[in-house]
Amino acid sequence: MNSFKTFTLVIISIVFLMFTSCEKDEEPITEINNSQESIPKDIIQKLKQAGFYTQEGLTKVENGYVVEYDIFLTVEEIEELANSNDVFAENEKHYRTNNLVSGTRTIRVYVDPALGTFVRNSTDEALRRYNALNLRLTFQRTTNATSNDIRIIAANLGAGTYARAGFPRSGRPHNTIQMSTSFYGGTNRLGNTVSVIAHEIGHCIGFRHTDYANRAFSCGSGGNEGPAGVGAIHIPGTPTTHAVANSWMLACIGREVNRPFIASDRTALQRLYAKTPPPTSPVSFYRYYNSSAVNHYYSTSRSTPSGYRYEGVQCKIYSQQVPGTVPLYRFYNSSRVNHFYQQSRSTPAGYRYEGVAGYVFRSGGSGRIPLYRYYNSSAVNHFYTTNRNEGNNAAGYTYEGVAGYVLR
């Protein structure tokens, strides 16, 4: 295996500010044409339904569409995401999608010969950086053009676009990374090559942009990319700021910028793909009640809120996400003094988002019990209990279904 000398981030640097601030006397780069005139309205609607931001960075390409400037989606994938009930979180931290690569496996990466020796060597360095973390995913470059897991191919992506890729599907990495022939291959020797490749591999195994909530952090302009149907879930243990300087998953990069993994990048990768996942134990989910406001409040914190009385441990949930669990989001209606918990991140009318209360199972299983939801429309109060009899006997409350599955 050849020795790679640079780390390539798969990003599209479409912002003039990024180019001019990183390299003087750079020739002007024209932005990608983001006109939606040629894109069917039903495609735009489905992307919006999936949660993607479509006001910029949306283009029609061969066999599909590009959203957020560097994420490729086929029509089939757009359909799946539009009809998906996957959840997401908007916490401002390192992010991953709902779909990850499953199992312990070797991911074989093929590099199109048209990209040349420099890109092959850069790919080797990018793979070395991943392999140095001793993850359950091992990356290996292959010369087999037909039997591989990720193909890095040469493509005409238009002015300003470095590269693009997609997200995992069915437990497998996204199978293609497109590298722009305007920047890579031939005599091109950009210093960002290793970082761009590593970045796009990051997308292929399930990472969102670190600054997805505000692309202006690395691009100089742009806003929130949107949660998207693939999810934007915070990775526990990573910083709580809206973006992390020098992260390999920032949306934009300069031509001569190299971004090896920083400490929080390594934490994020090891959190998702460590050979031995960190131990996580369930915690108590406490119940509190404010009789004057007629409001129930549930939390993993034993600190009783002002005006509430402690009513005991309702059940056990997880404070960090473990396999099989999904976030249980908390919302609050201040005018009606009502807390509401659900698996969907969609904020109900009149409520504000208060974060993730904990993690619950989406379905039943060994040792799991339902957490039932009841509602009193007169008092405007949601009540959650694992005791169906308690809920059924609560005067004025109507059963609304299972909020999630928890532990006793």
Overall description:
- The chain is an alpha+beta fold and 408 residues long.
- 18% of the residues lie in helices and 28% in strands.
- It has two domains: 8-273, Collagenase (Catalytic Domain), CATH 3.40.390.10; 283-407, no CATH class.
- It is elongated, with a radius of gyration of 23 Å.
- A five-stranded mixed beta sheet has the order 7-6-8-10-9, covered by helices on one side.
- Helix 4 crosses helix 5.
- It contains eight helices and 22 strands.
- A hairpin with a 2-residue loop joins strand 2 (59-61) and strand 3.
- It has helices at residues 16-22, 41-50, 75-82, 116-131, 193-204, 216-219, 263-273, 388-392, and strands at 8-9, 59-61, 64-67, 71-73, 95-96, 105-111, 137-142, 150-155, 163-164, 176-180, 184-185, 188-189, 233-234, 283-290, 295-299, 309-317, 325-333, 338-342, 352-361, 368-376, 381-385, 398-407.
Sheet-strand content, in percent, reads 25-35%
* Number of separate structural domains: 2
Radius of gyration: 23 Å
Indicate the low-confidence ranges by residue numbers. 1-35, 84-93
CATH superfamily membership of the largest domain: Collagenase (Catalytic Domain)
Helical content, roughly? 10-25%
At the third CATH level, what is the topology name of the largest domain? Answer: Collagenase (Catalytic Domain)
Shape: elongated
The run of helices and strands is EHHEEEHEEHEEEEEEHHEHEEEEEEEEHE
Number of β-strand runs: 22
N- and C-termini, Cα separation: 52 Å
**Given the structure, what is the number of helices?**
8
CATH class of the largest domain equals Alpha Beta
The secondary-structure class comes to alpha+beta
Largest sheet: 5 strands, mixed
Please state the second-level CATH architecture of the largest domain.
3-Layer(aba) Sandwich
Overall mean pLDDT: 80
